[in-house]
Amino acid sequence: ILNVEQSPQSLHVQEGDSTNFTCSFPSSNFYALHWYRWETAKSPEALFVMTLNGDEKKKGRISATLNTKEGYSYLYIKGSQPEDSATYLCASNSNSGYALNFGKGTSLLVTP
Amino acid sequence: EAGVTQSPTHLIKTRGQQATLRCSPISGHTSVYWYQQALGLGLQFLLWYDEGEERNRGNFPPRFSGRQFPNYSSELNVNALELEDSALYLCASRLTGGSSYEQYFGPGTRLTVT
Question: How far apart are CA A75 and CA A11, in angstroms?
Fold first, then answer.
């Protein structure tokens, strides 16, 4: 995998549903994997940064896992709420100073 | 603590003109990154400045340039604007050194080229 790829491209769930997204990234020269939450007309908000294989991070109802050997990360949202509606971006970088290589994002819509 | 700020919010230019976009990083952050999101594409890395120097650039033509000032704020200049330069331009800052991985983003400048 040369680029960061995210799936699905978009997702529409009902309030209370749990959902998950996938991010695939180049496993060679891996340094860190980032998840951002981006609401329209706002700044992308950092959710998690993970560096170690097997890392699991959690913030409220949102959690993420990392597999650096096979080059993928999952983002989970438990009990989705309408305020979770946003685009979720995944990005990797190969060096602490280097630029982030972003996927195209997963657009989540949660309806009441 | 103030976040990353960008100005202007919107910018409308004519093809062939020059555009200047500005970014102020979080206080204490010395690295500034510029990204472009064109229609239908993901965020693409443009430029990285640290301590006043250009450290790396993405796959963009030399028409895209910038600089970083002694107070670590930054400008992105786009010369000889083309229609496909219409995009959202995001700036991010990072605290250099140590285990600082996170980049903090501003709200962006929407550039429209007519």
Answer: 13
Per-residue CA distances from B42 to A105, B16, B23, B45, B67 (Å): 7, 25, 20, 10, 24
Q: Do B101 and A34 touch (CB under 8 A)?
A: yes
Q: What is the SS3 assignment for B109?
A: strand
Closest by Cα among A89, A110, A112, A111 to A101: A89
Q: Does A105 touch chain B (CB under 8 A)?
A: yes
Whether the upstream peptide bond of residue B70 has omega within 30° of 0, thus cis, is no
Residue A97 has what pLDDT?
64
Query: Residue A94's pLDDT band (boundaries 50, 70, 90)?
Result: confident
Higher pLDDT, B2 or B63: B63
Q: Does B103 touch chain A (CB under 8 A)?
A: yes
Tell me if chain B has a CB within 8 Å of the CB of A94.
no
Please spell the DSSP secondary structure of A55-100, one letter per residue: -EEEETTEEEEEETTTTEEEEEESS--GGG-EEEEEEEESSTTSPP
Residue contact A105–B42, C-beta within 8 A? yes
Residues in A closer than 8 angstroms to B103, CB to CB, are 34, 46, 100
